[in-house]
Specification:
The structure is a homodimer. By secondary structure, chain A is an alpha+beta fold. Chain A is about 30% helix and about 15% strand. The first copy, chain A, has 15 helices and 24 strands. The termini of chain A are far apart. About 5% of the residues of chain A have low confidence. At the A-B interface, helix 10, helix 13, strand 15, strand 16 and strand 21 of A face helix 10, helix 13, strand 15, strand 16 and strand 21 of B.
Chain lengths: ~650, ~650
């Protein structure tokens, strides 16, 4: 059976935890992620394909194949959207067969096949009249980036459908890259990392070391002297990656690069490279990440800001950067088994990434701010820079597509493979990183398997019931993650009529019961989920005097449409004891909102002056108002509304 | 005697207040502004000229004249730096003759003259091989912007030195523009406004209405349908200027455009155009300006942000935008006589603009943040976008020059003409907008004059003594501005041995004593200058829980080098009663610092986590530490240091 895996570490020598492939994970029908994935599959993928067709992205392949006349349409990196769509659709077909989708995939695969040159090169922009301009500008023109996505699509297609139709194209493209680049060839890496991860995965899929070597070569060409890409931090070319310690430049590029570094390190055991990735992670997630897992605080260069520079309205937090963050965390988790990577993976998945797609699966965000207002400033509507990004600015309505459409198929491929990041195996152990209701079959390196049934209403409820359905006769460690937010967590093991004694479990770590697991044994995990208030590091100037509301893995936000007649900027959070989980108003899919009472801050200023003599008195309530908070990922699904994640608070 | 005026409204029909030209204002030697202007004149102008020479800016003119072979050097807008330098140097020569500077000016003037085409066109980039590409791209290529600065330089040269050598070049260039553009010609305005102000001033200088008509045409071509410049807010082309109500896009462009609109409105009495400028001003200064008068909160597009979007470290606040803000406020003040424009003019001049030049006059800032740290993030050092701006990022050391060197000669031309914005006349009235020690001769429309001696240690002391030296025999109103910050102000009139009774004066308005002024009469103005704390509008998220320290017109800041061994982010301001003005440490020129005691905030967090459960307790002092605050304009004159304008405060 094909694995449908995006990340297959079965034979990776230096992985601490090997992911259980999606083919071995079944989401309970109608459960949280099943709904999300179904929406992307049923609405998102067909809509994305139509946009690929109407915007010329498919025609570009037909033109490159000589089947169609006329000019290339769109941006020079548009092939990558088609590859990402193919990757997502392949995972979807492994999850739930569909003759219609399958035919659509095969038609697109044939178009890609036909567009490949005899030498393996494929890029529809640099075809026909521009064929002699290939590889003229690796820094800016994304050819290897696009071929990286082709390779990942080919692998996904093969691993999901057992077909070599697209995989062959990918291998020929990779062989072309290996022939042109390297110690004896061209030295430049691509200005936009991606092919590094892809080539390592291809080495895994084929067992061919030269793809790994090629990836390693690209990784170590960054920061060369003289610089290969101009030496800018934007491209992570300011110094050799092994000496990079601060998350720098374009956030998607940075996270893809670090993910590829981690991939290579797991294959080679290169401790220096792994340490560099971890050091970059420390910078990104200890000082430069949004509470949602969003990465990249600057519109300028779609980039990381300085430490603690985390503006809310002007958060860039590109959906692709959240996707990249999940890929990066998944790899560091696999390389090390450290819970902190599973924590940020969860945070990003449920918040920063998931916010990038609408509840119906067919409308997207490019930037993901943490505060928004329904009416943008006029200058926001049509800016000059960052073509793709600008379309997401303004009133921040979700869009079905973008001229620079990197995000829609990227979030689709991530979500449709997310079950592959929930479980893992190691020698003598099975890991539960994420709590997904359904079933999992974890195959151990020795060929034996553990089958688990997982029952939970996570993320709405923290009670998780894991029933052993089948297990080896030898002792086995069950590594159960206790999320960092789950203060007061416990677990107990019920077997043969014995309910078991609750054992306290430290948050932000794995508990590791080890025993011979008999079928019928139930592990009960209890993760208390009171509503809670989060505070920022005091250096985060945007959040001084503010708190974020959270429950379980979910960050919550306020939308003004739940607070008619109230100025949301006068609402202040109160201690959370009296907040109640209730069904979210006017939102489909059984979402849980939090309701209760907020303080309405006293309005003291007589004037509306921008600056005035300081009123040094602490904020005070003038009254109260009903409060409704919804999960951040679900914002902007009900029309124009102001939205706030970080709110003032009163100690009560 | 030449007036040396940048803005001459002598014959402008719809001006409420006409500026007294710099030729009639003498700064007391050694006084605050005299020191600043002298530094720019003695150190700044020669240094700037050397940079214009070594970077090819002068050679470009020689090449365009056919006197030199080779390629154009630098950016296509570099001519404007030379024109701005000529404008500044002209004012300087009117202030203090210098044979050396005069010769340098005349050599540059001859180079410009020689580079002009027979048809009047002059732009050294579009010369020689590129001559056939003229006006191919008005949106981006700054040809009219450059010619606007040529016109202003020509006018300044004539009004300062009585010579027509450069003025003739300017007139021929303007005539060329009038021949090419207009209702019967090309419709596009320049993507970077500037020529609008210049053409109106040329109409004033020549009495020729067609220059004014040309300016008005350009003003009203913005926001046309179809758009002339692409329709972006960046270029203020998103809607007709008369319908624009929000300060939008590139801040320098916006402020220059609005200044030009105000200029045109004063000539024609166009109330709609004046109202549009005032409406844009409301947006800029009531919701989008820094407390320093800095404009433009986004690096992206060097642009205005949304209302209340005023990040401190990432304040863009380009020096040129502060210059533009002064020009805009000066024009609105002249058009209306409203004190609010004089207030922001003062705030900008003493803070946001003056910070753009070092105390020695020869090193500059491009961006002017309100918080900075000595070590930048690696990505800040070499960014991708905004070539000019990026050079000013990083550790924010002042630079003697920039590849995009708009700011150095711009702040020079502003400061060397700033005495022209201090006083005004109207029918039967003389206006004191700014308090400059020295002498002024205000010539009234009826030909009579008021001569005043002004004695004050402003901005360090708020005691101002205005002695009437000569006055008409008729009653005259003295419009004396009481700054918005001057709570508790008063004035008294001492004459013929009678000390006079103090009269309370409302802040943010003019007091208007009217009488026959006899020589020897002294008006004593008392503007109390305690140190004070300023608070922001509650929607300014960056300043929640923070205050800025100010005294008189000056905003103060902390530099870490005055606080060795202390984490400046733990310092909190206390009530200001015990702060004392003292000579600033290690800073030349008699600057006044504020010293006293700051609270050191309790350090509560056990961990350094970016996010943690909220600690809802209000901040509390763990101890105290000596505090030294220096004027914001003087920061970064003593080497690398952290700097903060907005600090936490404790109610005490």
């Amino acid at each position: 059976m094909p694995s449908a895996a995006a990340l297959d570490l079965t034979n990776t020598p230096h992985a601490a935890v090997r992911p259980v492939p999606p083919a071995h994970v079944r989401l309970a029908p109608g459960s949280f992620w099943d709904q999300r994935l179904r929406a992307v599959q049923v609405n998102g993928l067909p809509s994305q394909l139509r946009h690929c067709q109407t915007t010329g992205r498919i025609r570009n392949f037909e033109r490159a194949a000589g089947q169609l006349q006329g000019e290339f349409e769109g941006y020079y990196f548009n092939d990558s959207d088609v590859y990402k769509w193919l990757e997502a659709a392949s995972y979807a077909l492994a999850r739930a067969p569909s003759a219609e989708l399958r035919q659509a995939v095969e038609r697109v695969v044939q178009a890609v096949r036909a567009a490949q040159d005899a030498d393996g090169y494929v890029n529809t922009y640099f075809s026909g009249p521009r064929a002699d301009q290939r590889y003229r500008n690796l820094r800016d023109e994304h050819e290897l980036y696009c071929m990286g996505h082709l390779v990942q699509a080919g692998i996904a297609h093969r691993r999901s459908l057992g077909s070599d139709e697209l995989f062959d194209v990918a291998v020929r493209a990779a062989d072309h890259v290996c022939a042109v680049f390297g110690p004896q060839g061209r030295p430049e890496p691509d200005g936009h990392p991606e092919i590094e991860m892809a080539l390592v995965e291809l080495a895994r899929e084929t067992g061919q070391r030269r793809y790994l070597d090629m990836a390693l070569f690209f990784v170590d060409q960054r920061g060369a002297d003289p610089p290969r890409l101009g030496g800018l931090g934007y491209h992570q070319d300011h110094r050799p990656v092994r000496q990079q310690t601060e998350a720098t430049g374009h956030a998607v590029r940075q996270a893809y690069l670090a993910a590829g570094m981690t991939d290579a390190a797991m294959e080679t055991g290169d401790a220096e490279l792994l340490a560099a990735s971890q050091s970059l992670w420390d910078s990104a997630y200890r000082r430069r990440a949004y509470v949602t897992g969003g990465l990249g605080s600057r519109y300028e260069g779609e980039s990381f800001g300085a430490d603690y520079e985390l503006p809310n309205r002007r958060a860039y937090a590109e959906t692709c950067a959240a996707v990249a963050g999940v890929l990066w965390n998944a790899r560091l988790l696999a390389a090390t088994g450290h819970a902190r990577y599973a924590d940020w993976l969860e945070t990003t998945l449920y918040n920063g990434a998931l916010a990038g797609v609408s509840l119906d699966g067919a409308a997207y965000f490019y930037a993901n701010p943490l505060a928004a207002d329904p009416r943008p400033a006029p200058g926001d509507q049509r800016g000059l820079h960052s073509s793709g990004a600008q379309q997401a600015v303004g009133a921040h309505a979700r869009q079905p597509w973008y001229a620079c459409a990197c995000c829609p198929p990227n979030i689709a491929r991530l979500l449709l493979s997310m079950t592959g990041y929930a479980y893992g195996t190691s020698s003598g152990g099975v890991w539960v990183h994420q709590f997904l209701p359904g079933e999992v079959e974890a195959c151990l390196p020795d060929g034996q398997a553990l089958r688990l049934q997982v029952e939970t209403d996570y993320p709405w409820d923290g009670t998780v019931r894991l029933t052993i359905q089948d297990a080896p006769a030898q002792p086995l460690t069950l590594h159960l993650r206790v999320p960092a937010w789950a203060a007061g967590a416990s677990y107990r093991i019920e077997r043969e009529g014995n309910a078991g004694r609750p054992v306290a479990a430290a948050a932000g770590a794995y508990v590791r019961p080890r025993r011979v697991w008999r079928p019928g044994t139930v592990v009960h995990v209890t993760l208390p989920m009171p509503a809670r208030l989060i505070g920022s590091h005091p250096r985060v100037q945007a959040n001084t005097g503010r708190a974020a509301l959270a429950r379980g893995p979910l960050i919550y936000c306020l939308e003004s449409l739940d607070h008619p007649g109230v100025d949301v900027d006068r609402l202040a959070l109160l201690p959370t004891e009296r907040l109640r989980p209730v069904p979210a108003p006017d939102l489909p899919g059984g979402l849980t909102a939090l309701t209760g009472t907020a303080a309405v801050l006293e309005q003291r200023r007589a004037s509306n002056d921008l600056y005035a003599p300081l009123d040094a008195r602490p904020p005070r309530a003038a009254g109260d108002a009903p409060l409704t908070a919804i999960p951040y990922f679900a914002w902007a699904n009900r029309g124009a509304s102001a939205m706030r994640v970080w709110l003032p608070y009163l100690a009560g």
